[in-house]
Each structure stands twice: as structure tokens, then as C-alpha cells.
Amino acid sequence: MTLVMLCGVIVAWLVAQAVGPGVFRDHMERASHERGSVAAHAVEAFVSASAVTLAAALTAAVATSVLTGLLVSRRVASALRNMATVATQVSAGRFDVRAEPPGIGSEFDDLAGAINAMAERLGRNDAMRRRLMADIAHELRTPVATISGYLDALDDGVEVLSPATTEVLRAQASRLTRLTDDLGAVMRAESGTMALDLVPVDPHELIEVCAESVRTRYEQAAVALVTHVRPGTPWIMADRDRVGQVLANLVDNALRHTPAGGTVRLTAESHAAVVRFAVADTGEGIEAEHLPYVFERFYRVDVARDRGHGGSGIGLAIVRALVLAHGGTVSVVSPGAGRGTTFVVDLPARPAGPRWHPFSLAP
Question: Is the pTM for the entire model greater than 0.90?
């Protein structure tokens, strides 16, 4: 609207400058040959010139304003049509299309950027959904096929129900149960329906219990597990079992990706207003492009390798969900492939002083 008005004013001024003086001069030249006072002729010339100038200027201004308005509206409409086309294609499943910034204002460029970000996010979610379905099918296929095979063998008399057979069936059933439990834990934590039993917890106790629970498996894998809690580390308000599950998932993940002879360090220390837990390994490491997605459900840096390691693919998703439920943060850093990985969990430290109340940190 400002552009249209400005164009109209400029054109009106230009036309007035071009028409007015000429009309006035012509009228005065004609009046010089006629009778009458100079003042009367001047007034008549002024009125006549003003009328002609105003009519010409307004006509030109209106025409210019209409033309400018049409051009601007057509450009805006074209930009909106293009972005609407892209949005329609995205809604139809074409997540690779992008909207070009029209360059007619920051608002339109921001809208195009938002549409592109939405398309990219939806494309990534769609890829994750496809991978999720494929991985769930894979995770279910092996135990179901094993159980079905053994049951068929028992029916045909090829196999007898021995303790070894029972152990295999029990292990496969446990695998299915663990998968469903993990999926349920993620859904409850992410939806906010998981109840947390918040109590004062000593980080040293959490570290020691976690280390003791995995000590045998680490020894069998010939991987060293080193624990350290810096003196003076404050307690935290947390659900002991859930934070224990977080640490257990992280040290299990580190063990799967650390070869024999490697080392995993499980530490805790005070850091500003939080207690920082860290699990650092000397294992396979993670390339930079994978780091933003390692906490996504069923995201696998190396599909074949991770399946071979026996992970369900949602252990780190559980970690993130449980940490966020406690009001904390979790992150991962890695210098690259073959150079180890460090997972960092920050949980709020227990408030000190006589005003602290155990319900002050309830979720």
C-alpha cells in the first residue's frame, strides 16, 4: 500500500510540474492580447492551469496506482501460489520439494523457510517411520521364527522338551518382552504419564550399583570399566530406579561398541547447578553427521553392526526420555569413527538449605 501511494504521489507531482507551468504560460500569453486587468487575467490563468494540472495529475496518479497495485498483487499471488503448490506436494508425500524465497519481504521469505523446514522434518520423520517399521519387523521376526521353529520341531517329534530347549524358548520370549517393555517405557516417558518416585539419591551409590551390575559382562568382554565420583558431588532428587536404568543403558551401549582391550569410564561430578554423569568409551566412535540422531528411536549408525550387537535400537531413546522427565539434559560427543564416544547426562542437584521441600521438584 505504501508503494502504491508513493508511486501515485510521485507521478502526480511529475505531471503537475510538466503540465501546470505550460498551461499557465499559454493562458497568460493569450490574455496579454485581450482587455482586462493583469490581476484578473492572472487569477483566471491560475484557476485554469490548476484545474487542468489537477485533472491530469490525478488521472495519471490513479492509473499508476492501479497498475502498481496489480503488479504487486500479481507477484504476491504468484509467490503464494508457489508456496501453496509446495505445501500441497508435501502433504501428498513429496518431501523432497522446496519453496524458493520470493524476495518480496521478510515475512514471505520466513514463510518459505518454514515450509522447507517442515518438509525436511516430515521427510526425516517418514524415513524414521519406515526404518522403525522395518526394524520392529526385524526384531520380532527372529524370536518369533525361533519359537515357531522349536514348536514345530516339538510337534513333529524332531525335538524334545529338554532344559536346553526350554532355555532357548524362554530367552526368545524374554527378548520379545524386553522389546515391548522398552517401547512402553519410551511412550510413557515421552507422553509425561510415567510416575517418578523422587527421593534424595547419592550419585556415588548410583555409580557403584550400575558398575556392579555389569562387572561380569565387562570382564567376559575384556573391557575395563573405570568409575570415579569427584569428592563433594552433591546428591540429586531423582527416581533411583529410572536413573539407574539410564546409566545401565549407557554402559551397555558403551560395552557393545567397545572392542576387547578398550576402556569405559563412568564418572559423576558437580557442574554448576547440576550433577554431571558421563560415560566415555574408547570404542568405535560416531561420525559427526549421525550425532544429532542417535537418541531417535531405532536410529542405527550401522544397521548390520548394531543388529549384530543385539541392541533393541531404543535404549538411547529411553535414556533421553527418562532424563527429560527428570528435568535434565543428555548429549553425546565423538571425535569421529574409531575415536570413542562420550555421553553426558546433567541432572539437577538437590537444593540445599532449610527451605528445601521434597515436593518442590515433583514433575
Answer: no
